[in-house]
Design brief:
The complex is a heterodimer of chains A (about 300) and B (about 240).
Chain A (H helix, E strand, L loop, with lengths): L1 H13 L7 H25 L9 H18 L6 H22 L4 H21 L9 E2 L14 H24 L1 H11 L1 H6 L4 H27 L1 E2 L1 H5 L1 H14 L6 H19 L5 H16 L5 H8 L1
Antiparallel strand pairs in A: 1-2
Chain B lengths: L1 E10 L2 E11 L4 E5 L6 H8 L7 E6 L2 E2 L5 H6 L2 E3 L12 H9 L6 H14 L15 H14 L4 E5 L7 H16 L3 E6 L2 H7 L2 E6 L2 E6 L1 H5 L2 H8 L3 H8 L1
Parallel strand pairs in B: 3-8, 3-9, 6-7, 7-8
Antiparallel strand pairs in B: 1-2, 1-4, 4-5, 9-10
Chain lengths: ~300, ~240
């Protein structure tokens, strides 16, 4: 039962290394990055019900961490990975501590994260430290030692490694006490507290974990496109895509975000070949989300669950 | 085991609970009864840390725990259930119980085994792998107790576990609570139904309009004029006396 799925998964994951078409490799890379970011959102939003609408805060934090470390202090970009893990977690912990201490949840938490993302965008747009609206150019210097790859397949490999890492974290949540506590407080906060779950601490750690991982995605972006600016880093579109990928696939499940990313990117690509109007893809995303919420509240993975039950 | 004194809570213009004091000896089943709106659930919520009391002490095993968070109180060995059952609806019955077991063990397989044992003991065996949302009212009440019990508490606070059950189910749950006490857990329970309490409690406190009006063994309480009036209205005791 499981063996064929594993084979399909391996073929899909390793296939792009054998491809020579740059556009196909690019498609695979974007899909994997999107799956990774969705999985990061899923860790807080899916497992813990911390439905963030501003997860790009962490992505942008990671991107700026990478850009600033190199351009201001001349550090090797590989160091940006551990650094972004730290900055992303810290930002997550700070926002979590503030929001959860105040007892914000559900749509209030969603609004607060949306507002924080906007604050980050405005700040990065006006501060000298982030070079304001000009953004930061990362000097070209191709080479693996410099974390800049001429071949998209190398970028794909890094993204795949990130996806494996985030999915391993999700699988761990599914099994471990921490994940059980997250799921419990998602379902019912009072009951979880009565049974000994420290709500503020558990939620804050979840957001910090999710934030730290998400920031890795920002580093990869910065190293791939060699440019970051406020809109790229803290624009609302990326936040929406992250939660969309998780919810379409199945929030709170280990494989949902991966499935969601594949489906969403195929839809986006196909639709682009039909209608090349800018803004058509996001509109289509909205339709897909409505259909999913209406027909499959547990996401695409819900079909599989229903079929198995 | 548990000693409450001077517990008060005001909500705006309403004095919900006034100067409540009660003592729960170790190994006992103590009941807190009273008509609707008497302040039972508020008292309970203050003891369990869900509502911060305006004043008063809640002493568990010699430590004042008033004002602590619910999770800290659970950690200290006292766990409550909810009158309106609060299952983790999307999780299975076993996962629900396991969350309680996770308080004492970080190991998933150990916690699962402990949760399974508690579930079997409380008669939830056939439902362990079903979603909690699929349970009947009686099943949900059992699940409330099972989850709390899985935290290996020394003291259990049961909030109207018999409300909404039929007589057979009440008998079953009375036997279950006795077995829990015999297993070494001290029990404080809130009930609205006096008959159920009479069969179960060693000691009864009666709350009306936020204040304690009577305290004693169940037999004496059932004949206390103040209690009868609190439940049936002013003058009821005299009328009943005249008929007798």
């Amino acid at each position: 039962m499981k063996a064929p799925l594993i084979v399909v998964g391996l073929v899909l994951a390793l296939g792009p290394f054998a491809l020579t078409s740059q556009s196909l490799v690019n498609f695979a890379m974007l899909t994997v990055v999107s799956a990774f970011l969705g999985q990061c959102w899923n860790i807080a939003g899916g497992f813990g019900g911390l439905t963030s609408f501003g997860h790009t805060i962490f992505f942008g934090t990671g991107a700026y961490t990478a850009a600033i470390l190199q351009t201001r202090w001349g550090l090797n970009p590989w160091l940006a990975l551990p650094a972004a893990l730290v900055t992303g977690s810290l930002v997550g912990a700070a926002i979590g501590a503030a929001a959860f201490r105040a007892g914000l949840r559900g749509s209030y938490f969603a609004l607060v994260t949306l507002a924080f993302a906007e604050v980050f965008r405005v700040l990065s747009n006006s501060l000298d430290f982030t070079r304001g609206g000009l953004g930061i150019n990362i000097p070209l210097g191709m080479g693996a030692g410099n974390f800049q790859f001429a071949d998209r397949r190398s970028t794909y490999a890094v993204a795949l490694a990130f996806l494996v890492l985030a999915t391993a974290a999700a699988a761990w949540l599914k099994r471990a006490r921490f994940g059980a506590r997250l799921a419990a407080l998602r379902e019912n906060e009072d009951a979880a507290a009565a049974l000994g779950v420290n709500l503020v601490r558990t939620k804050t750690i979840a957001l910090a974990l999710s934030g730290g991982l998400t920031a890795l995605g920002g580093v990869l972006y910065a190293q791939t496109y060699l440019y970051v600016d406020p809109a790229i880093s803290f624009g609302v579109e990326r936040s929406v895509e992250m939660l969309l990928v998780a919810m379409i696939g199945g929030a709170g499940t280990v494989w949902g975000p991966i499935l969601g990313a594949i489906v969403l990117h195929i839809i986006a690509d196909v639709s682009r070949s039909w209608i090349d109007t800018p803004g058509f893809a996001p509109m289509l995303y909205g339709v897909v989300l409505l259909v999913i919420i209406g027909l499959l509240p547990r996401g695409i993975i819900g079909i599989w669950e229903r079929w198995r039950a | 085991m548990l000693e409450v004194s001077g517990l008060s809570k005001r909500f705006g213009g309403l004095q919900a609970v006034r100067d409540v004091a009660l003592k729960v000896p170790p190994g006992s089943i103590t009941a807190l009864i009273g008509p609707n709106g008497a302040g039972k659930t508020t008292t309970f919520a203050m003891i369990a840390g869900f509502i911060r009391p305006d004043s008063g002490r809640v002493v568990l095993d010699g430590h004042d725990i008033a004002g602590r968070r619910p999770d800290q109180i659970a950690e200290a060995g006292m766990v409550r259930t909810f009158q309106i059952t609060q299952p983790f609806a999307g999780l299975t019955v076993l996962e629900n119980i396991r969350l309680g077991a996770f308080l004492r063990s970080a190991d998933t397989s150990a916690a699962t085994a402990a949760a399974r044992a508690v579930g079997l003991r409380l008669g939830l065996g056939p439902f362990l792998d079903r979603p909690a949302a699929a349970l009947t009212v009686a099943g949900r009440k059992r699940l409330e107790v099972a989850r709390a019990l899985a935290t290996a508490p020394r003291m259990l606070l049961l909030d109207e576990v018999m409300a909404g059950l039929n007589p057979t189910e009440i008998q079953e749950i009375v036997a279950m609570i006795r077995a829990i006490r015999d297993g070494g857990v001290t029990v404080l329970l809130i009930e609205h139904i006096m008959q159920a309490v009479a069969a179960l409690a060693d000691d009864v406190y009666v709350l009306a309009e936020g204040a304690l009006i009577a305290h004693g063994p169940p037999r004496a309480i059932a004949h206390d004029d103040r209690v009868i009036e609190a439940y049936l209205g002013r003058g009821a005791a005299a009328k009943l006396g005249a008929h007798a």
